[in-house]
């Protein structure tokens, strides 16, 4: 049975539904520090403080969990406003997940990010194995998390696996304070007001990925034959790389009146410019068959349609 810690977040809210569709609702226990009615509607949900090791162990024992998805994180921009809290939450939750996975023989998935790279990493087609000196507390947490995951695998044999996600674009739950949030907000504003004020400079490339590809990648990696994995924490994957100008042009193809202007957030600009422009995902392709299925054009059609249909028939709260 599967435990999702941080199920109320951007990835967790959709991963819960996706995993329940594959493995059966009863077999996916969703938890979050806050009550979440939607997650409890079609399967088990419990309030769980990921920073309380005893509580995490108790949920794992009670539900006979064999696989944990730890999705707890303060993202890059919000982390820069409170680095001490970001470290405390991100690493505290991960250490509890690692220890419980070790003691209860669970497999563990924890996301990493393109944010794990820094300005001294090669920017174009960033390699799987390269210099990693991130300049954000979020990136430092992610590199630390990768090393802890590899450590627990080599020292204790824990089945830890991880993916360095690009900026994730989705239309179910808004991201919480990331540098790539603009690529989500822009679609909502294109429908709501027809204009968007972007906080990230027009020419900054960042890797991005659509949520359906994220969900499939999580399952494909966790179901991969461990004998094929030469890497574990954490795999580069790539699907799209674009700038605010490029995504705005794609939206304008569908909404010609759409306009964008800029109010640069210096914190987000510094973070965005410190990250890669594009990743090399050869290892993920070779070791567990990763392939992207969504590109910018197809995602734009899907995002605009999903937001329109929701705006037309607002979901009950
Ligand atoms: C952030 N969306 O912007 C997250 C993610 C790659 C970016 O880690 O912080």
Automatic annotation (TrEMBL):
<dbReference type="Pfam" id="PF01370">
    <property type="entry name" value="Epimerase"/>
</dbReference>
<dbReference type="GO" id="GO:0006567">
    <property type="term" value="P:L-threonine catabolic process"/>
</dbReference>
<dbReference type="InterPro" id="IPR001509">
    <property type="entry name" value="Epimerase_deHydtase"/>
</dbReference>
<dbReference type="GO" id="GO:0008743">
    <property type="term" value="F:L-threonine 3-dehydrogenase activity"/>
</dbReference>
<dbReference type="InterPro" id="IPR051225">
    <property type="entry name" value="NAD(P)_epim/dehydratase"/>
</dbReference>
<comment type="similarity">
    <text>Belongs to the NAD(P)-dependent epimerase/dehydratase family.</text>
</comment>
<dbReference type="InterPro" id="IPR036291">
    <property type="entry name" value="NAD(P)-bd_dom_sf"/>
</dbReference>
<protein>
    <submittedName>
        <fullName>L-threonine 3-dehydrogenase</fullName>
    </submittedName>
</protein>
